[in-house]
Design goal:
Layout (H helix, E strand, L loop, with lengths): L1 H12 L5 H13 L3 E7 L5 E4 L10 E2 L4 H8 L3 E5 L4 E10 L2 E11 L8 H21 L5 H5 L7 H9 L4 E4 L2 E8 L7 E7 L3 E9 L3 H20 L4 H16 L5 E9 L4 E7 L3 E6 L2 E4 L19 E4 L5 E5 L1 H4 L11 H10 L8 H13 L8 E8 L9
Antiparallel strand pairs: 1-2, 1-6, 2-3, 4-5, 5-6, 7-8, 8-17, 9-10, 10-11, 11-12, 12-15, 13-14, 13-16, 16-17
Helix pairs in contact: 1-2, 1-4, 2-4, 6-7, 7-8
């Protein structure tokens, strides 16, 4: 514990752009490591990008069909041995509270025919965990890690949207969440948000009208209005009303935002929901895929002083909820064929064994196979929530 505390202290005292250099130096000194690299997942979650001073970095590694990609997907350390040189490369997940940032890669010498000792593997994972927390904090003060994640340049609208998001995955004993947006480097209107307290989880899924910066500005206004109301302790209906007023006051009904708002009560699984637009909700329960039918209410900002009334349902342990924007179910193939609800349901079933953080990326990859590689007519959002429920012995 003293060793780890010293490393954590050194990370806190380092300049933000030097925190990886600190971890690399510690590992090289303690374990005579031959190589230490940090790979961060890119915005599309298809590549692991080496961290370094641009443009002098190594080539990215695919998430699919690579050893670091397998460690990233499984969120477990993976040891790859080179018996001819008595070397092992360890790939360690770099994650914070379920938000998967990337992989720490460490290459070490081992005895001929030997295995990496369990205590060394545990120590290396502790370093990866400490580094993950510092990367999240350091991104407030340096562009190094944000730049490393880019496989290509972001549009300005996409830059605004990614900075607005809370993360791309989150886990707690009661639930596991994952979400993804496409096209990752050119999104403009779709967005998601979440926040949890001791007993409540708030989730919003938004689909702003328009394109480019106009859509991004609209979404930024609405999301921050919702956050402002939530942080003031207002009810779900009042949160929707305040955001509705903010958007209408700015655009007078000429622009508006389709939004789903949820409040999950963690001890019971009771859910309040306001359906203010086009994103849809699907439930997978005991292998059965079905839409959750809701009473549609007006999008945020369409009319002045709209009153929003929550509806209610309950989630059960083992339920999976999927929140999907119209850019998915309205997507057209090159021949003009709409992505069918049957294809969407089949995609939900085919991903049923994957953990929630992996589901959105896989579903959007399947959508890309239908839509083709050309420019998207609309951006697409998939969020997956796996509900585990709270045990009676849960300690808050």
């Amino acid at each position: 514990m003293n060793r780890l505390s010293a490393v954590e202290r050194a990370l806190r005292e380092a300049a933000p752009h030097e925190i990886f250099d600190v971890i690399r130096s510690v590992i090289e000194r303690r374990h005579d490591a031959r190589a230490v690299d940090l790979l961060l997942v890119d915005y599309a979650m298809t590549r692991l990008q080496p961290v370094g001073v641009l443009p002098h970095t190594r080539s990215p590694v695919p998430v699919y069909d690579s050893a670091p990609g397998r460690a990233f997907g499984a969120q477990e350390p993976l040891c790859v041995y080179d018996r001819s040189d008595s070397m092992v490369t360890v790939y360690l997940p770099v994650s914070v509270r379920g938000d998967r940032l990337g992989i720490l890669s460490v290459t070490l010498q081992v005895e001929e025919g030997g295995e990496l000792a369990a205590d060394i593997l545990e120590e290396l994972q502790e370093y990866a965990d400490a580094l993950a927390h510092e990367v999240v904090v350091a991104e407030r003060d340096t562009d190094l890690f944000l730049q490393a994640r880019r496989a290509e340049r972001l549009t300005l609208a996409a830059e605004m949207q990614w900075q607005l998001l809370p993360g791309r995955s989150c886990t707690r004993p009661e639930y596991s969440l994952g979400a993804q947006l496409e096209p990752a480097y050119a999104i403009f209107g779709d967005c998601f948000d979440w926040s949890a307290s001791a007993d409540d989880l708030y989730v919003t899924v938004s689909n702003g009208m328009g394109e480019g910066i106009d859509a991004a500005l609209l979404t930024n206004l609405a999301v921050n209005a919702l956050r402002n109301a939530r942080r003031a302790g207002l009810s779900l209906s009042d949160q929707a009303h305040l955001a509705d007023q903010a958007v209408y006051g700015q655009h007078r009904g000429e622009q508006y935002l389709s939004t789903l708002l949820f409040r999950f009560h963690l001890p019971t699984g009771d859910v309040e929901i306001i359906d203010a637009g086009s994103p849809r909700v699907w439930r997978v329960r005991e292998g059965v895929v079905e839409p959750i039918e809701l009473e549609a209410q007006m999008p945020l900002g369409m009319f002045e002083d709209t009153a929003y009334v929550p509806q209610r349902f309950r989630v059960e342990p083992g339920d999976r909820l999927l929140f999907i924007s119209d850019g998915v179910y309205d997507a057209l193939s090159p021949a003009g064929e709409k992505y069918s609800l049957r294809a969407l349901a089949a995609s939900m079933r085919s991903t049923r064994l994957l953990p929630a953080p992996q589901v959105p990326r896989v579903m959007l990859q399947e959508l890309l196979g239908h839509r083709g590689s050309g420019p998207a007519a609309d951006d697409s959002l998939v969020m997956c929530l796996d509900w585990h429920g709270r045990s009676t012995t849960h300690d808050r």
